[in-house]
Design brief:
Largest sheet of chain B: 5 strands, parallel
Number of helices of chain B: 8
Shape of chain A: elongated
Distance between the termini of chain A: 20 Å
CATH architecture of the largest domain in chain B: 3-Layer(aba) Sandwich
Structural class of chain B: alpha/beta
Helix content of chain A: over 70%
Number of helices of chain A: 5
Order of helices and strands of chain B: EHEHEHEHEHHEEEEEHEEEEEH
Distance between the termini of chain B: 67 Å
CATH class of the largest domain in chain B: Alpha Beta
Number of strands of chain A: 0
Strand order of the largest sheet of chain B: 2-1-3-4-5
Largest interface: A-B, 22 and 19 residues
Largest sheet of chain A: none
Oligomer: heterodimer
Structural class of chain A: mainly alpha
Chain lengths: ~100, ~240
């Protein structure tokens, strides 16, 4: 199973550690908020809104280097638009993986 | 080139800003979390280049471009490559960057922007001015990429139909890609009431009420049991 990593952030920073930390701080703040909105919409069966949330979370999945999970999230986003929950389990496992990883930073 | 960044995601704004800092010819003037704030800024300021996210709630990147009479150069940024074809419809769009944006791809987009002649400036906004000067009595709806002004008190009924809402006014009816929830937030509580999960009515336009329905113009609208007490409370009953 692929693991979250900081390869993309490091490639962006050009060694600028202050920027790396700034970006991590922003993700650590923004990710739990976006995740919560996603779960709220899933609970309320607002699947189109949940698809919007997945769309936004997808970017953070890619920033943390989760290539395969990004593809799965993209498929899940389209499924949600069609009111189909296929891919929910994999997507939420990815969110959990990211949550744990972000706490280690 | 003086530029601004429009993206509802703070992470994306930080990344684009960092990418810009690597290019000496770019000067980031401002960052905006939504298009409306950017429109207000562009009413007062001129920019050469806009980094624009397509996928934003309420007002998409394409909606934003439609408000600009003479748009500056625009580089679209998105997590979704499905909009690429639509992007080619706009002359102002220089390039289309799919997130996560790499440094190499970003630099290529900047080279394209620098080699493209200036076509206009962003101070010449028409529709955007209307958005900013919207008074409490107006509502702008996006129909076929045009922002159409509707006089709020003239609305007598809003009906939800799937992914669309029908807005009925004294003069004209409009079909808008939106939700009842969204328009409910924009309409004044003093005048409008949701009487059913699919209907919002203008209380001033009621002709009569019978059991669980109201007559508005020629439309008979169902009133759900849970909304009936609020409706009765709002009436000036003798």
């Amino acid at each position: 199973m692929e693991k979250p990593n900081l390869s993309y952030i490091e490639s962006m920073s050009g060694g600028d550690k202050a920027f790396e930390q700034k970006l991590i701080d922003i993700i650590q703040k923004e990710f739990p908020e976006e995740k919560q909105i996603y779960f709220d919409n899933i609970s309320a069966e607002n699947y189109k809104e949940a698809a919007e949330n997945v769309h936004k979370l997808k970017h953070k999945i890619s920033i943390l280097g989760l290539v395969k999970s990004y593809e799965l999230a993209a498929t899940y986003e389209n499924n949600l638009i069609d009111m189909n929950l296929k891919g929910k389990e994999d997507f939420e496992s990815t969110l959990q993986l990211m949550t744990i990883f972000l706490k280690t930073l | 080139m003086n530029c601004i960044i429009i993206d509802d995601e703070a992470t994306a704004r930080a990344i684009i800003s960092q990418l810009c800092s690597n290019v000496p010819s770019l000067n980031v003037l401002e960052e905006f979390p939504n298009a409306i704030q950017a429109i207000k800024y562009l009413n007062q300021n001129e920019v050469d280049l806009i980094f624009l996210d397509i996928h934003m709630p309420d007002f998409t990147g394409f909606d934003f471009i439609e408000t600009l009479k003479n748009p500056p150069k625009i580089i679209l940024t998105t997590s979704d490559s499905n909009f690429a074809i639509q992007a080619f419809e706009y002359d102002c769009i220089v390039d289309y960057l799919v997130k996560p944006i790499t440094l190499e791809r970003f630099q290529k987009a900047i080279q394209k922007a620098e080699s493209m002649p200036n076509k206009g400036n962003s101070n010449s906004i028409t529709s955007a001015e209307k958005v900013e000067t919207t008074s409490g009595n107006d509502l702008y709806v996006n129909i076929d990429r045009r922002l159409i002004k509707i006089d709020i008190p003239s609305i007598y009924l809003v009906e939800a139909k799937g992914d669309y809402i029908h807005v009925k006014t004294e003069d004209k009816n409009y079909t808008v890609h939106s939700t009842l929830k969204k328009i409910e937030e924009k309409l004044p509580d003093s005048l409008f009431l949701k009487v059913h999960r699919s209907f919002i009515i203008n209380i001033d336009k009621i002709i009569d009420i019978e059991d669980n329905s109201v007559l508005i113009k020629k439309d008979v609208i169902p009133v759900s049991r849970s909304n009936r007490p609020e409706l009765m409370k709002r009436l000036n009953l003798l």
